[in-house]
Structures are given as structure tokens and as C-alpha cells.
Amino acid sequence: MQRRKFLKETFSKLPIPFITPVLLSSACNKETINPSSKSVLIIGAGISGLAAAKKLKETGFQVKVLEAQGRIGGRLRTNRSLGIAFDEGASWIHGIDKNPITTLAQEAGMTTAFTDDDSKKSFDIGGIVRSTILYDKTEDEYYSMLESLMKNGSANESFEAVFNKMYPTKINDRLWKFFLSTYLTFDTGDLDKLSSTLYDEGEVFNGVETISINGYDTIPTYLSKGLDIQLNQRVTKIDYSNAKVQVFHGGNISEADYVLVSVPLGVLKANTINFIPTLPNSKQNAIQKIGMSCVNKFLLTWNTAFWDNVQYISYTPEIRDKFNYFVNLKKAQPNVNALMTFAYANYARQTEKMSDAQIIDEIMAHLKDMYGNNIPKPTNMLRTKWGGNENSFGSYSFTAVGTEMQHFEDLAEELNDRLFFAGEHTEVDYFSTAHGAYLSGIREADKIINLL
């Protein structure tokens, strides 16, 4: 799945800055560093927190990680209950060239497979196979629209509002709904909340897309080796008013010289952590203004495959954001008869109130329209509910109406050289991605190291 695919297509001529972990870790080479007497508490055992913890521990700090859940990984979560590695969060390495996740995945033992965006088949309602010519022509028009729409946008208007004014004849076009849903909403957030001027923000790495085969959780497992991680320790309060920062968690109080908060933006929005003193207005404003997207994933298995032997199967229903894209896992794993599909934005949130049986019926209605009423029922289904998950309250950040790019910088700003913040929502260039989360952890570790 080509995350931010429109950026690659439309803005490929722009220079893409890259910060390598080697450059970020240059501070570790200082011979004068003596961090063994300094302690760091890291809140959250997702990829950003673990990346920071690993680097700080290797530098000599006393490091402890507090994790609210009974497992590590955060939104890098893999479900193997069906004998398949179903990545509930991140699945792809988005552009493997110079992407830090590429090397990290190799070190962690992750196996990956190339996913070919050109291996696709598109169906309209009634099982009508859409011509490749029409699909490609509309895709080109879609990219051209993305180039021009921001010129007509404004800070207080959503992408959807501006699009509807500029392209009224395309509002109900099912193929256009598909592109707006799977190519844009999936990569950003709710179109009625997405900024009409900042939807193109964020940098990308070049190279092909690869999907994890044996599970993205191999990365947090690798990063966590040798770390002191305390599970089931939900943090409720952080007092950074004194020289030592106090963290209240699971009925306990821990102290440290430095504290790194790496919880998702959705958790910060929910105000489940009480900060003393209260966070500065700039940070509170950033938490409020940056959007939090919701994408839910669904894996269905069968005894035999009945679908086309292509990587991606698209379907264009009347309702946008509803089970309109299917990833054929059999392409990368021949012995696996499984499809993965998605729900985005408000429809994704609606699915969290639906039963498994209702979900299967809705997905099967689309598959039956494409492949006939006699296709078999799935043997199993797995699903996610990221919107209501108290450990994330959403999937990833996006540039909503009212967002300014400075807000990402404000979220990354340390307080009193004692309280630090990491996570994809703190990476102005790579927000909403796993590699952005990883780079943020390295960035904050370097900040702490450079204080010595």
C-alpha cells in the first residue's frame, strides 16, 4: 500500500531531506559523557519509546520503560491466532530507500515481500470490471486535482468543502469516491476535517513498498531486548515541577532525572495523564489542533481462494470508506487464503459498534457483488478497533483544519530539560508513520544525551 502515494507522484521532483540514525547518534561519540548516574523513565513501549530506551541504555543511562498494556509494541501489534501474522497496525515499509525501518527490519529478522501497486483489478457495482484505461485516466485526473486544490483552499476550510465546490460533478462518482477514500483518507484523515492547504505535507522515502510477512512486532521485540520494561503500568500523573520528575503509575510513584512521554496523540487528547504543572498553552493547542485519524483493518480467511490473482482488488460502493480495497495476502504467501480490507474515518468508527457477524455480512456483500453469490463463507475473521482503544484512541495523526505545521514542532518541544515527548505526532516531516515514530525516539534520546 503506497502511503502518501500522491506525494510521490505529484511532488517527486522536490528534494527530500533525510536524517539517518548514524547522524542522529553522532552525539554518542562524545568521550566526556558519563550518564550512568542519570535515570530516564520512558512512558510507552511503542517503537518511539523503545528506540529511545535502547539508545539511552546503550549510552549508559539508567532506563526504565512503563507500559500501560500487558504487551510491548504500541500500534505495532501482530495477531497470530489464525496462524497468519496479521499486523493490526503498521503493515508496510513505505519506501525502502534510506528508510531507517528497512535496516531495522533486517536486524530484527522481519521478512518482507514487495507489493506491486500495478497488480490490481477494479470492480464497480454489479460486478462490472472497470477498464484499466478508465481507472488510469481517473487516477491521473485525481493527481492533477491534488496539485491544484490547495491553491483554492484556505486555513478554515476542509479538503471536502473545497473539493465539493471545485468538482461538484465528481462528488457522487463512485470511482472518485474510491480514490478520495483509499488514496487520500487512508493516508491522512477524515476529509471533512482534513486541511485544504496542508493535505500534501510530509516527506516520503523513495523505493518500492514492502509488506511484513512474519509480523511487524519483530521490531519492538528486537528493540526491547535487555530493557527494563514494566507492563500493566498505566501512568496517571507526571509532576515535573521539581529537579526529579515524579511519575504516578499503577499505584506506584517513580522518580527520574528525565521523563520521555511517547504515548499516542489520541491519549494526549483524552487527557488521561495529569501534568503538573499543566502543559504550556502552545503544547495544549497543538494537541487539540492536530487531527487523529481512524483506520480499522479486517482479515478474512477461506479454505480456498476464489478471487483474482492480483495484489489489490478494488470495489466502488456508494458509501465511501467502506471495505473498498482488498489486499490479496496469497500473492506474497501462496499457502495463505486470506484477504485484508479496511474501513476509514467515520465508517471505521462505526464498525466498532458492529458485531463480527455484521462486519462479515457487509464485507461479503461486496465480495458477492464482485464474484457471485455462490462464493464460500469465510472460515475466520480478525478485526481492529483503534478508535475506541484506550491506549491509542485512533490510528495516527493528520493535518486537520486549524493545524499548523509548527504544531508538530510544539509537540516535540521539551519542557525544563526534564520532560520530553516522542511519537509520530511529534515528527513534522514523517508524521503518521512508523518510521516517523522511530526517528522521534532517536531524536529525543539525542536531546537527553546532549544535556550531559
Automatic annotation (TrEMBL):
Keywords: Auxin biosynthesis
One Pfam family in the UniProt entry: Amino_oxidase
Catalytic reactions on record: L-tryptophan + O2 = indole-3-acetamide + CO2 + H2O
Chain ranges of the Amine oxidase domain: 47-449
EC numbers on record: 1.13.12.3
Pathway named in the protein's UniProt entry: Plant hormone metabolism; auxin biosynthesis
Major enzyme class: oxidoreductase
Domain of life, per lineage: Bacteria
InterPro entries: Amino_oxidase, FAD/NAD-bd_sf, Flavin_monoamine_oxidase
PANTHER family: FLAVIN MONOAMINE OXIDASE, LYSINE-SPECIFIC HISTONE DEMETHYLASE 2
Family: Belongs to the tryptophan 2-monooxygenase family.
Protein name as catalogued: Tryptophan 2-monooxygenase
